[in-house]
Amino acid sequence: MMQHFISLNFYNHIYNFISLGNRRQHSTGIPNVNRYVNANQINKQTILQAYEIIKNNPEFNTNVAYIGLKGFLEDRVVNNNFIHGYVYNDSFVNIPIMDDEILSSENVAYRLRFESILNSLLSNRIYKMVFRWETVEIDDVGRRKSQYNSSPSFFIHKGLDIDVVLYRFNYYLNNFINQYSISENINLDIFTKEWIDYNDFKNFDKILSTIKQKDAEFKKRMLKSSGSEISQEKNNSFFKNYLAGKKIYLVEYIKGLNYGDLVSSSLKLELFKKLNIELSKIDQIDFYTNIINGRCYIIKVDKISSSSNEGGGAVSVYLNSYLESLTIVHDSSNGTHPSEPRPQISTGTSLSEAQPLSNTFTNSEYLVIESWTDTIGEHQPLVNSELDPSGVHSGLVVASEEHSSGLVASEDHPSGLVVTRTSLLSGHTITFVNNEAVRTDIRFNSKQLLESYRNFDKDNNIGTIDIESYTNDQNEAVAYSIGYKTDKLLQTFYLDSFDSTHSMILSCIESMLTKDNHRYSFYAHNMGEFDGILILKSLMLRSDELGLTLKTFSNNEGKLISIEISKKIAHKKSIKISILDSYLLLPQSLSKLASVFNCNVQKSVFPYEFMAASTISYRGDVPAYSYFANGMSLESYTEYASNYVENNLVWDSKLETIKYLENDLNSLYEVMMSFNKIIFRQFGVNITRVRTISGLAFLIFTSKYYSPKTTPIYFTKGKIENFIREGYHEGIVDVVTNYTNKLCYKFNVNSHYPNSMKLTMPGGKPKISSETDLDKAFGFVEAKVEAPTEAELRVAILPIRRDGKTVLFRGTATGVWFSEELKMARSYGYKIHKIISCLQFERVDGTFNKYIDDIFALKKEADLEKNNVLTMIFKSLLNSLYGRLALKSDQTKLSIVRSAVEDSKLTKISLTEQSEVLIRGNNLNLVLSRGPLDSDIVQLVNEEKLYKVNRLEFHATDPWAGKGSSVQYSAAISAYARMYLNQFKNIPGNDYLGGDTASIILSKPLDSKYVGNNLGQFKLEYVKK
After folding, report:
1. SS3 521
2. What is the rounded average pLDDT of the residues 809-818?
3. 15: number of CA atoms within 13 Å, CB side?
4. What is the pLDDT of residues 21-40, one digit of tens each?
5. Is the dihedral of CA 33, 36, 42, 46 positive or negative?
6. Residues 461, 518: Cα–Cα separation, whole Å
7. H helices then E strands: how many in the chain?
8. Contact between residue 375 and residue 420 where contact means Cβ atoms under 8 Å apart
């Protein structure tokens, strides 16, 4: 009550202020909510607080003024058409796919609109801006449904460089277009909200300064990538700091076979005794002393054969301080370098008398401070195909000048011998020629992919769930019927029996939470876009009241893919069910799936456009033909309507909805049970273990085909992964000729990406390298490349990423590519001016061959038998494994966060993560987070002490860390796929007109040797004029 009393006058002020804004809106005809919010110093928390108090105080419901205020705020705070907590600013309608540079005069209209938004911002505040794209999807029954996708938010403030906003707009727009393969004009809404206020943050100036610095860096990157700025020559490797910052210790300081001074035979005997070495090996082992950086080391060396076939020896290094009672003397005959301190070893002191080593060690490994193996080979050109002693494909890195220059070959060994040294401590591999380090490989420590288990029993705990909804005047989906089916029960619910859609949905969920349904997986088709959101909203409103625990799962785009619901029952037990999206496993319309799977119940017809709040209880004539938007022919409609007339039947909305709902539940149930049966019979795994078709392909591969012993797959992460992703260019869609009046031939490749997966893969653990010879590289290289002119090569073939787009460039560019694609480009006239950075991998064959061969054979057999079900399933599994390997290590996730007063988690997330609250329901918030903000900003926010900080949790982001992926495989596979098509883009006399990821359009037919039904062969799709 106290809060209400204090706030009353203030809300009168808000009402008057917003009323003024409404009058302005009507006078100008331009909806600009930002103008109202910024007119008086009222921040976002105030607006939200005003809405909550008005909503929760019944006395306000009788006041016309406050009813209007509540409605106004609902439109901007609650409704689906707006992003929660954000203020709508502007809309761009029918944005064309822009080829022009965003800062060009052609795009001046965008500049003016964004400048208007920036000018309306208040000083001393930092805001967040979000772009929301609207796309319209036509479902399998012909309904148009709007879908919204949001960009990540970014910071804006008064005085922000307008170019930064324009570059971000262009960058996110291109990413969206590429990700969703948009080819038509799109609509975009712009939203902003206040993030922090100067009055609330003592570090405000520092935070703003940091944001400005990050913006300047972003603009500089965009200028370089677009070619608008002439950048300085890049000479530094992507991994320069890593190479310079790593210590290599003694493994590099001891030059080749120049181990130091050979000890006398008497001391050698004493060392054998002290280290508990069998005397029978006295002729196989030598000991040396060597002083490095003022410290004396004892070096134990297994004698090495000079034969390249037999060469190999173990080297162990001991610190002489462990034997500190020895007196060092110098023996000039042992060849100590004149400039080095001369060790003095007293022959009169017995090692057995030394302290503190008074007893013989039973395990001398405790004394070893470093160890490695040395292998001697004949002098030869150092090429990348050479294997090091561990069998790992060697990269080539030149050792730092500090430790490799000015060395002289040892007199005890002939010049020209190559010593390959592999550290057992750090994983470094160093190659010495004439005792001079010429190459160092730095192997990145990577985790290995593990095998998955196979199931012994088929999981039949499968059900289906479906919602019927209509679209209201606010373009919101409103559920009016829901139902579910298991092997034992089919139950439906209709809105006329409930006081709200939430009550109806919750009654259905409660009915599902029985002991019989424990651990059931309920599938809803296209759940993530429609049904799942409606269910989740209802659950969040009353989950506490019903004693439910919710958990959400999302994909890397933050889209909902699964909801897990659990309820505690007696004796500390619980019931758990999951709601999943069947569309993510079988990405076809339900009507097509029902037809392909030959279900007993097929998708029926229904007048979706007819349903509304006013018609859910309708009883009367069959609705008009125009309401049946699912492509129903007029003849079929006439027959359908005549049946009601001839049999004197009444068309009842409720009965027809329930009948249609039951059909959908039954047909989807048949599909999913049949699908699960096929997968279990063929591969021995259950579909309920995964949520997507790519996850299923990955499960099948790792449980049946993956061989971790012969072809292990390793994860890359952090900076290594980011480098590879710069060279991960997916399929190219290009149009060379816009119009022709001649015949053209379109060819598609059979299983294009699966075919590429059978080629040599970049396997093993990645090795950072300073290799500058492309012919010695196998992996990913950053290079400066000059493309041939159009006169020299009609169709460009080498891709690069610019402004979020993948383009085929002309002129000179610096980028990252798979080494084999760059070699192919060179053969077509591309000039490789410089290799700047290099990441080496092993050449590994056969990683995916068995998987591809088996499933392609199954698909081919199904084709011959005209088994449409198996053909569809095996085709999906063939094409889905490739993308799973590149699963991003993004930290994008959906989570449900409780907003209790004592819990500061939501505040912490909102201030330290790139996050938004999507749905609020009583004490629960559905939060989309795209990972932490920049570590510098997080550190400054933490200093405000607005919440409890776990000091171990918040630290500067480690650029080498991350969840990890195996993107090196996907990047190589996509490169191989482009390389295959590139062969046909510049055929003399057969013009390439255009194509996409797996197809080409030519002016003449292909040679017949390339055409057929086998893996990787072309098939003629059509001939057109």
Report:
1. strand
2. 93
3. 17
4. 333 333 333 233 333 333 33
5. negative
6. 8
7. 25, 36
8. yes
Mean pLDDT across the chain: 78
* Distances 703 to 472, 708, 824, 871, 968 between C-alpha atoms, Å: 47, 11, 35, 22, 21
Task: Express each pLDDT in 469-494 by its tens digit.
Answer: 998 877 788 999 999 999 999 999 99
Question: Under 8 Å CB-to-CB from 939, ≥6 apart: which residues?
Answer: 954, 956
Q: What is the mean pLDDT of residues 184-211?
A: 86
Q: Is the model's pTM score more than 0.70?
A: yes
Asked if 820 and 976 count as a contact pair (C-beta separation under 8 A), the reply is yes
CA atoms within 13 A on the CB side of 234: 20
Q: At a CB cut-off of 8 Å and minimum separation 6, what does 576 contact?
A: 518, 519, 564, 565, 566, 567
Distance CA 982, CA 837 (A): 25
Whether the Cβ atoms of residue 550 and residue 540 lie closer than 8 Å to each other: yes
Helix, strand, coil percentages, rounded to 5, for the chain: 35, 25, 40
Residue with token string 């004949």: 378
Give the whole-number percent of the chain exceeding pLDDT 90. 39
Reduce the DSSP state of residue 267 to 3 states and report it. Answer: helix
CB 644 within 8 Å of CB 650: yes
- Three-class SS of residue 313? strand
Instruction: Locate 207 and state its tokens.
Output: 């935070």
Q: Which amino acid is at 291?
A: I
> What's the full length of the chain, in residues?
1025
Residue pair 581/527 in contact by the 8 Å Cβ criterion: yes
Cα dist from 713 to 67, 697, 706, 766, whole Å: 62, 16, 9, 11
Q: What is d(CA 21, CA 952) in angstroms, rounded to the nearest whole number?
A: 48
Burial 510-549 (b: 16+ CB within 10 A, else e): eebbbeebeebbbbbbbbbbbbbbbbbbbbbbbbeeeebe
Rounded Cα–Cα distance for residues 416 and 418 (Å): 6
